[in-house]
Design goal:
Shape: globular
Distance between the termini: 65 Å
Order of helices and strands: HHEEEEEEHEHEH
Oligomer: single chain
Number of domains: 1
Radius of gyration: 20 Å
Length: 189
């Protein structure tokens, strides 16, 4: 360490690397979704997430990697053209699901452990293309980049236990919409 401190260039490089890592780790614990118009109304994924919202603007939403303990959900439409994604915010699950979607049938996709919001949405697109169904992603905070693999799994497990009521309420809401046969859930879907 003494040799490192005697060389000013190495000292500043070391200090810069430490600051850079601190910033990267802090930024990764949050995920920013930039909002825009949906360019292709057919190629889209419906998203419900119970992640805590750190900041909401007209042009972006910043989600934390933690559960919204009050049970609030955010509703997004994710649209894709080639590999470019666009996101729009919806005010309710009804607004989200009463849009026009490409396929007749629906599937609810709940991603596994260790996924961030964007990777869950990309996986939903793969499911949509493979099975020719509309996909409603239920995205929960399962990845905290500040934790190692074992502690992240423990954190995810705790989030699942806390979110069980939220997920149950979400499924009840979907069932109610199906019973009323809203446009998203016409007979047979």
């Amino acid at each position: 360490m003494k040799k490192l401190l005697t060389n000013p260039f190495k000292y500043y490089l070391f200090a810069f690397l430490i600051m850079f890592l601190a910033i990267v780790l802090t930024v990764q614990a949050k995920e920013t979704i930039y909002l825009s118009e949906i360019p292709d109304p057919q190629n889209k994924i419906a998203v419900v997430t119970n992640r805590s919202v750190l900041n909401l603007n007209n042009d972006s939403i910043i989600f934390e990697s933690i559960l919204d303990l009050e049970g609030h959900a955010s509703y997004l439409t994710a649209s894709y053209i080639d590999s470019e994604w666009h996101y729009a915010r919806n005010n309710s699950i009804e607004e989200l699901l009463n849009q026009e979607f490409k396929h007749k049938n629906w599937v609810i996709f709940v991603h596994g452990d260790g996924k961030d919001l964007k990777s869950a949405i990309k996986r939903a697109k793969e499911i949509e293309e493979l099975h020719q169904v509309n996909v409603l992603v239920y995205a929960w905070p399962s990845r905290d980049p500040d934790l190692g693999a074992i502690n992240n799994f423990k954190n995810s497990y705790a989030n699942v236990e806390k979110a069980t009521q939220h997920f149950s309420a979400f499924l009840s809401r979907i069932a109610e919409m199906r019973e009323r046969k809203t446009s998203a859930f016409s007979a047979g879907n």
